[in-house]
């Protein structure tokens, strides 16, 4: 909103006419009309009178969403949220909590998706359920193909996994033996 729109809005919130605002500030009605129509730039003393009359901060009077950065816009709306009823504040908090949870999950998914694929996706595609399923299936297919190319024994067991199982069995027996010896002492 422009300065003029903000003056109209704040004046309307109080149920004041331009004449009422003039009486509160000492600013002539014609000047208030020009300000509300965004004609001319007000002096600092005029802005201070308006802030005092409206009992608002400079941000609320001067805020212009179209000309503000994202942080300024977010700050503006968070300030406005402070005046919401408790029930609405609770809803806002719930929405923010869910947003931050989703953002955290996005980071986790980013780590799970193979490099190169994540970067190639736009934001919408990153959370397209069907696309995600196909990527997971593709990754599973790659793992299955990799297992097929590994050497196997005569009955089809993966040699690497047999070595691992053999190592685990020997290691388990060793720990059992040592545990039994320690127990005897």
Form type: elongated
Q: Strand share of the residues?
A: under 5%
Write the H/E string, N to C: HHHHHHHHHHH
Radius of gyration: 34 Å
Compute the number of helices.
11
Low-confidence stretches: 173-185
Report how far the terminal alpha carbons are from each other: 84 Å
Helix content: over 70%
Mean pLDDT, to the nearest integer, reads 76
Strands, total number: 0
Largest sheet: none
Structural class: mainly alpha
Task: Describe this entry's structure for a reader.
This protein is mainly alpha-helical and 185 residues long. The C terminus is likely disordered.
Short descriptors:
single chain; 185 residues; mainly alpha; 11 helices; 75% helix; elongated; disordered C terminus
